[in-house]
Amino acid sequence: MVINLKKKRSDIFYKIGKIFLILNIIKFVFLYLPIKPIYMIESFWYCNFTSFLLSLVLMYGNKIWIKKIATLVLTTAIVAQSMWIIFFVLDFFNIYHAGRIIGMGFNMINPPYVRYIVYSLSIMEHILLIPISFYVVKKLGFDKNSFWFIQIFLFCFLTFSFLISTNGINLNCIRHSCDLVTEDIYNYGLNLKTFIYYLYQLVEWFLLISVSFIFFSFILKKDKNNQ
Question: Is 94 helix (H, G, I), strand (E, B) or coil?
Fold first, then answer.
């Protein structure tokens, strides 16, 4: 079984997973529920979904699945989160305000101190996925047999995101660029234009994740835990 909720552990993985889960629940509740109470599909943004997945597997999964999911998150997060992290940093220092950051609706959260907490937690969530998964992989080893598992997961995840996205919620930037601010995003429904963009994203993700997988399998090949 991948996750056993009745299993109790007290190791470092459980503690990391528990802390990370609490931080993500706080952010999710304050960011989405007050301003978008019916938009629970927001939980399928990559950062939200993989954060909850990694947290639960660290808390309740066996070591085989912890290793597999940590490898998945590490190789995908470096691709999925890099631009978000860069734009968060630019936004934080008031250098550039990307459409994807504006679209998260932080300005709709009141009072201001809650807005600051949620904003900070959002930055932490995007950044922490990489070091946490890297730490776990360093401890348990890089799962070199998970390449197609990761690619199939991403295909299903991106396809699901494409199908359930709405005109106003462009899950995982799958129908158009997340930084569109001047165009009418409500014209980006299910049509030929968005389908072509979806196919382009599938190819791009496949190639980038392949490079990421090869890169991490190479730099972690000397880890004594690797098999």
Answer: coil
